[in-house]
Amino acid sequence: MTRKNPKVEEADESELEVTGHPKTWAAGVPGVYYSMKPALEHMGVERSRKTLLALNQKDGFDCMSCAWPDPGHRKTFEFCENGAKAVTWEATPVVIGSEFWAGHPVSELRDRSEYWLGMQGRLTEPVYKPAGEDHYRPVNWDQAFGIIANKLRSLPDPNQAAFYTSGRTSNEAAFLYQLFIRAYGTNNLPDCSNMCHESSGWAMGQTIGVGKATVSYDDFAKAELIIVMGQNPGTNHPRMLTALEEAKEAGCKIVAVNPLPEAGLMRYKNPQKVKGIIGHGTDLADQFLQVRIGGDMALLQAISKRVLEAEDAHPGTVLDHKFLEEHCDGLAELRAHLARLDDATVLEATGLRLEEIEELAARYIAADRVIITWAMGITQQKKGVATIKEMINLLLLRGNMGKPGAGASPIRGHSNVQGDRTMGIWEQMPPAFLEALGQEFGFEPPREHGLDAVQTVRAMRDGGIKVFIALGGNFVGAISDTHAAEEAMEKTELSVQISTKLNHSHAVTGAEALILPTLGRTEIDRQESGPQFVSVEDTVCAVHASHGTVEPVAPGLLSEVAIVCRLAAATVGGRTSADWAGFEKNYDLIRDHISHVVNGCEDYNRKVRQDGGFILPNGPRDSRTFNTPTGKAILTVNELEHVERPAGTLILQTMRSHDQFNTTIYGHNDRYRGIRKGREVVFVNPADLTELGLADGQHVDIHGVYSDGVDRVLRNYRVVSYPSARGCAAAYYPEANVLVPLESVAEGSQTPASKAVIVRLEPVPVLEEEPTAWG
User: Fold this and answer.
1) Rounded Cα–Cα distance for residues 214 and 402 (Å)
2) Candidates 3.40.228.10, 2.60.120.700, 3.10.20.30, 3.30.540.10; CATH matching 198-410
3) pLDDT by residue (tens digit) across 636-675?
4) Which of 318, 617, 725, 731 could be cross-linked to 736 through a Cys-Cys bond (beta carbons 3.0 to 4.6 Å apart)?
5) What DSSP element (H or E) covers 396?
6) CA pair distance 679, 677, nearest whole angstrom
7) Taking every annotated instance into account, which residue ranges of this chain make up the domain Molybdopterin oxidoreductase (predicted)?
8) 650-763: which CATH topology?
9) Distance CA 350, CA 104 (A)
């Protein structure tokens, strides 16, 4: 079944092509072509059929590429281009053989790109790098678990270990992982949510009592207005385009707020409809507000102010007084605060025209059912938490919460990051959860809050964390301040990665290092009691089963559940009543315990087997109840602060190309933005290029501008003239993470502020050719 590794070549940035203006529509026939071509090339016809036709189906497996929910009536091809790429990436029969490790020292792997590392194929055996050596070597599973357990037991304080979790981890594995970690004695549970939607959780938790979406999938088609802020659905969650198309067909208006004119915000050519193949497709955005980076908060405050002014002009006709009186606190304070908002300040912060703001305000006031949806363009700002609180303010003013077609909708990018948090993957789980966990398993969980992702890097840097274990993900590649993160990881005594494929975090290690290969979500998971399934939670709180459909790429691979169970048994043994061996044999036993511990998951085994799974309770959505100190939703006062841009600088945001998923790079093209054969580009508005004395195609060094004295720089990047907002630039993640200081975080959530990086572009001198000896 395994295939020979195809020839993999690194991108030659000297061959980079800029093919023209950015696209004005997404998907269509090219989406189908770029879905199927890599699948057929890398998996073959039969494996492609078994995986892609099972993707997002009721008896299949959940897509790994985003957390977008599944519709009730699913199509045969219920997947998108990036979903197909994610499946191909994981289910490829290309594997890494034992000889690979002898031929590739860790120091060489460190210099390889994420693309090259991932293209080497699936990991199939545990490997270990001893201290002082530069090569991984194969070991057996018992040896691997023994090394980890002995190291963890030798630490004088369990808080000297940190345990990271990727959002692709299943509910069952996540529940056992946090149980193992708390039985070990620490709450050091950093996870990928710390780096993406932590701001959403903080803002929503403090205002409406739940950090999750207050809408269902069906609400999108019932909305009269959808405001899409700081996200690029055409690349990051393409199946959302179908829901937006359905909303438009039902008469909904859509407003896009973003610094870049993304194709997926403009027009959608649905490849499952005739008009998406040979026709114009569906125009999505009725209004596009090209806001400056960091200007979203000012825009939202300006809209709320106009809502209040409209109420004053026509008393009793604009605000939802009954909802506000019965369910909300803080209206008087908000009204007084917004009365002082100055339009000149708003225009400076947003870069918008006054008539654009007035148009959006009129749209909002005219609509009875409004959804505001957002992603990391909002959460990764310094004022990300406050900005999301302003979204909640705006929704609450007209009662757009807890009714059909209305609510708040953060869109998660990892497929189960929300489920992992529900299962206890958080360094700050509430006392009620810890109490239930302790009672269920007969031990006393630690209560002191643990470290989040940024705090973990600081602790490793300062010598406080000796052991780092990651259940999936690419922590070093994903976190901000890349060089600082690398240096911090190298100070640990042991690093462990549980993974399906290689990435940069396998090449930046502690003194000792282990890689433990695991089954992918696409693969059949056979245990002693028979084939197993796992469960996941999507972005609208729907929990459903996920069944692997193809044979594992190699014998001897363990599932994430099995790895956690064996590691826990070797490390914490009988400290709890947990039946680690039994859990590995039969995942129903895990779900029985989840039923007793996790609120909303009662009778879990029965409910997750229902057709379509089940929906977790959500107070704001279900009954307009709010788990806050007052029992009401809270309208908040937030001091406006927009990003200042010193003369000669730009505000840069990091972003994905269309050919990647998070830190996984599928290829070197970004066809929606007109980039081929490279990634080392910086997108800049043509007027800003003129102001800075630069030219399209010129090469520059990108320097971060911060007061800490550290010169963070990306060398020799090609300038691309692009219709970004004035004063704003963009570069690809994760390469541009090097420019984001570890200390630059969103207030409150500590999410890296990757959408507000002040940079200076310095021209690279053009070297003249040396004359020949006879010239």
Assistant:
1) 7
2) 3.40.228.10
3) 999 999 888 999 999 999 999 999 988 999 999 998 899 9
4) 731
5) helix 384-397
6) 7
7) 122-500
8) Barwin-like endoglucanases (2.40.40)
9) 50
